[in-house]
Amino acid sequence: MPILLEPTVAVHRSFLEAWDELGADEERWMGGRGLIEEWTREELEDPGEFARLIESIAAEARPETELPPDLVHQTVLWFVEGDQWLGRLAIRHHLTPPLLELGGHIGYVVRPSARGRGYATQMLTQSLPVAARLGIDPALLTCDTDNEPSRKVIEAAGGELEDERHGKLRFWVPTHVH
């Protein structure tokens, strides 16, 4: 059964395959463009560079890591089954005004070949206790108004629609079981 975990070098090959599946339109979700550094798909072929990516991702979550003023610390988790990279989820530790309008606390992507299996719902559900430990309750999630699959994922996790802004639906999802 797939689990959400800290990034690991064990899924190196599968991560690159997923990047190829996502293509240029969605490659930003792969994490090659982190908050601190940026990598190309070709650079991440190198196992040493891939290990540096994983360290950079870990650094993004640490409060002592200095970030540009317009960015926030985030915890990035990968959804993995064995050595297969299935998806990525990021929990932003706090919201800037733009994130409050459009981005929210949690964003996720499932690789195209793994879509339609309920993985996004599993990822989001597994991430809620992590968000709670970060002091986030409830979590803001957003999706495009025409993204019915994502809307269903958010609602399945208990998301309550607040409103629509700038073509995005804004939901609040409880992270603690009350």
Question: Could you describe the 3D structure shown?
Answer:
This protein has a single domain, classed as Aminopeptidase, CATH 3.40.630. The strands form 2 sheets. Strands 1-2-3-4 form a 4-stranded antiparallel β-sheet, sandwiched between helices. The protein is built from 5 helices and 7 strands, in the order βααββαβαβαββ. It is α+β, with helices and mostly antiparallel strands and 178 residues long. The protein is 34% helix and 24% strand. The mean pLDDT is 92.
The overall pLDDT, averaged over residues, is 92
Structural class estimated from helices and strands: alpha+beta
The third-level CATH topology is Aminopeptidase
Task: Classify the beta-strand content into a percent band.
Answer: 15-25%
Number of strands: 7
What's the Cα radius of gyration?
16 Å
Write the CATH architecture name: 3-Layer(aba) Sandwich
Could you give a short description of this structure?
It contains five helices and seven strands, in the order E-H-H-E-E-H-E-H-E-H-E-E. It has 178 residues and is of the alpha+beta class. Strands 1-2-3-4 form a four-stranded antiparallel beta sheet, with helices on both faces.
What does the secondary structure layout of this molecule look like, with pairings?
Elements: E1 3-5, H1 12-26, H2 47-61, E2 74-81, E3 84-92, H3 97-103, E4 106-110, H4 119-133, E5 139-144, H5 148-156, E6 160-165, E7 168-173
Antiparallel strand pairs: 1-2, 2-3, 3-4, 5-7, 6-7
